[in-house]
């Protein structure tokens, strides 16, 4: 059960003790609380992101509640499949799944232009992209070195800043937009999340944003900003309805979502590598392939059941390293809890009632952390030569530019504008193309040869 020896990865010894290895099953008295801890670590992100998308494209309270309910259900099923695969689908690892932040900005763009049915059509049709990446990871990995992936992840955070600020002010178009109550409540949530994260350790640090949101809910009551009327009308149990909003297929929407799948595949590779690193080894080929295939397949299932694409959750990888509990059985329990919550509309209704400023204050932290992850990828794996600085600067400026000044593309046809107007697409494609076209120097070759994220499907590192 306990691994007493020192695990070695590369040249650095891993000093963390593994309390429960991947195949271990802790006793129920330990497994259940450990599963709840994983649930708490990922819950806010997988709950908040569907709300952000739903509100941004103008859905009402009932539809938002239903989509959130489906998001919890699909996240639970996907987590169980990653831990206990179905054929080739699943990594057989403790990988916690939830709604992917990578898709937030692209899906808001698609939904605002074409509607909800087009979102689900694109999610379903584009999902095989990630499945293919799983099978051909060695062939495509060279297109996405840390320079490119770091830029894309930074763009994910940067392009979501306007969304976070709008909700902090009360929500787009709100009559009370920017008033003191809204901004003050968002600031309270933000301050509590940062304070707990930076000045505490252990459990409080891990659930800092969740605690901040709970406090925000309570503070919203005397301000008259919490409306729980939808909770009373929500049922205690409901069965999922496939394609409740229909499905539509728009070529430009599919291309936007397909690019997001490529980005989230890179994120999943990193999370799988981090998970196996916690037990002192590199990921095996079947684990990488199974994890990516599960990402794609379960995201398609999410589209069928009115939810948004799923991906692995990095905060749970950190939780595994922190606790030394790498048991896939524990993570499967977390998945089972999510499934149960997904069948209870009242739970989703309480979460969906989150006041806009509370959502905004939490989003500032969450989206800001995404940006900081991108910075970390770049600074750890890239030498900042003049060539690389040029790629970073150009890609970021173009990506953010089309987001904050979309009218610059107003003369383009609607479908082309959706593609070119996505900051993730504009900046990401720019980074990929420039990285291929601009000649590499000696520092770039050294970075590529020492890239710690370059994994091969035979289980080793390149």
From TrEMBL:
InterPro entries: NCS2 (IPR006043), UacT-like (IPR017588), Xan_ur_permease (IPR006042). It is a multi-pass membrane protein. GO terms for cellular component: plasma membrane. Keywords: Cell membrane, Membrane, Transmembrane, Transmembrane helix, Transport. It comes from the Archaea. It is found in: Cell membrane. The keyword Transport applies. The keyword Glycoprotein does not apply. The chain crosses the membrane at residues 39-60, 66-84, 114-137, 144-165, 177-196, 203-223, 243-263, 329-352, 358-377, 389-406, 418-438. GO terms for molecular function: xanthine transmembrane transporter activity. Belongs to the nucleobase:cation symporter-2 (NCS2) (TC 2.A.40) family. NCBIfam families: ncs2 (TIGR00801), NCS2_1 (NF037981), pbuX (TIGR03173). This is Nucleobase:cation symporter-2, NCS2 family.
């Amino acid at each position: 059960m306990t691994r007493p020896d020192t695990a070695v990865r590369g040249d650095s010894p891993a000093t963390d003790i593994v309390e429960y290895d991947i195949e271990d099953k802790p006793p129920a008295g330990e497994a259940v609380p450990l599963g709840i801890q994983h649930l708490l670590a990922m819950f806010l992100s997988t709950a908040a992101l569907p709300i952000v998308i739903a509100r941004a494209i103008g859905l009402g309270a009932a539809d938002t509640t239903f989509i959130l309910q489906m998001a919890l259900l699909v996240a639970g099923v996907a987590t169980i499949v990653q831990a206990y695969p179905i054929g080739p689908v699943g990594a057989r690892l403790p990988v916690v799944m939830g709604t992917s932040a990578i898709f937030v900005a692209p899906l808001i763009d698609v939904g605002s232009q074409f509607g909800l049915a087009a979102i689900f059509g694109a999610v379903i049709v584009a999902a095989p992209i990630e499945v293919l990446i799983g099978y051909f990871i060695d062939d495509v990995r060279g297109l996405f070195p840390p320079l490119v992936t770091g830029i894309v992840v930074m763009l994910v955070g940067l392009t979501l800043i306007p969304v976070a600020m709008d909700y902090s002010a009360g929500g787009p178009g709100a009559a009370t937009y920017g008033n003191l109550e809204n901004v003050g409540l968002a600031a309270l949530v933000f301050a509590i999340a940062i304070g707990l994260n930076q000045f505490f350790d252990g459990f409080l640090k891990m659930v800092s944003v969740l605690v901040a949101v709970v406090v925000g809910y309570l503070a919203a009551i005397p301000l008259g900003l919490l409306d729980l009327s939808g909770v009373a009308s929500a049922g205690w149990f409901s069965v999922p309805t496939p394609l409740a909003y229909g499905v539509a297929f728009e070529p430009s929407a599919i291309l936007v979502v397909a690019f997001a799948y490529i980005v989230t595949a890179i994120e999943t590779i990193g999370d799988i590598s981090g998970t196996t690193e916690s037990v002192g080894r590199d990921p095996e080929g079947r684990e990488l392939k199974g994890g990516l295939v599960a990402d794609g397949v379960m995201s398609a299932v999410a589209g069928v059941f009115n939810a948004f694409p799923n991906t692995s959750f990095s905060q749970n990888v950190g939780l595994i390293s922190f606790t030394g509990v790498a048991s896939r059985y524990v993570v499967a329990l977390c998945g089972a809890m999510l499934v149960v919550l997904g069948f209870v509309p009242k739970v989703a209704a309480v979460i969906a009632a989150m006041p806009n400023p509370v959502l905004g204050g939490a989003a500032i932290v969450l989206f800001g952390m995404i940006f900081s992850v991108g910075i970390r990828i770049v600074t750890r794996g890239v030498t900042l030569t003049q060539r690389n600085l040029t790629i970073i600067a150009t890609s970021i400026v173009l990506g953010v530019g089309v987001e904050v000044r979309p009218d610059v593309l107003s003369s383009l046809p609607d479908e082309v504008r959706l593609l070119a107007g996505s900051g993730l697409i504009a900046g990401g494609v720019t980074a990929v193309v420039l990285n291929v076209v601009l000649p590499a120097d000696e520092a770039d070759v050294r970075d590529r040869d020492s890239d710690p994220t370059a994994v091969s499907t035979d289980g080793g590192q390149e």
